[in-house]
Amino acid sequence: MAIIVTVISIIVASKTKRFFDIFIAIYNSIAVIWDIYSYIEGFSTPVNILRNQFGNEERNSQGVFILIIIAAVLIAVFMVYEASIYGKASVYKVEKSYIQPSPIES
Q: Which of 6, 20, 42, 94 satisfies CB 3.0 to 4.6 Å to 28 for a cystine?
């Protein structure tokens, strides 16, 4: 999501060439780079936990771990589904609103 916002802010800044739009595009770019760096840096800890978990000989602990993974995936799917339903509903609720032309399309 952040990458999409960054790309859109860069497109808007290139079209409008206003200082504030350029500043926002630069800020978004730096924030996305920082986020990606943080994700990569913090990735080694979960990988070590997974390696240790699957190296463990106890079957009971592996079963619990698999149940946690399944629950996390189900929660993520449910959240994405609900967000898409809410997003579609909010588009249809807009009544008599003035929509400004997009600087991207001009």
A: 6
Check: pTM over 0.70? Answer yes or no: no
Q: For Cα atoms 63, 66, 68, give the angle at the middle one, nearest 5 degrees.
A: 110
Side-chain-facing half-sphere of 77: CA atoms under 13 Å = 6
Q: CA-CA distance, 61 to 54, in Å (whole number)?
A: 9
Q: Three-class SS of residue 96?
A: coil
Length of the chain (residues): 106
54 residue type, one letter: F
- What does the pLDDT look like over 23-76, one tens digit per residue? 999 999 999 999 989 888 887 787 777 777 666 666 666 677 778 889 989 999
Other residues' Cβ atoms within 10 Å of the Cβ of residue 92: 7
17's torsion region: left (phi>0), alpha (psi -120 to 50) or beta? left
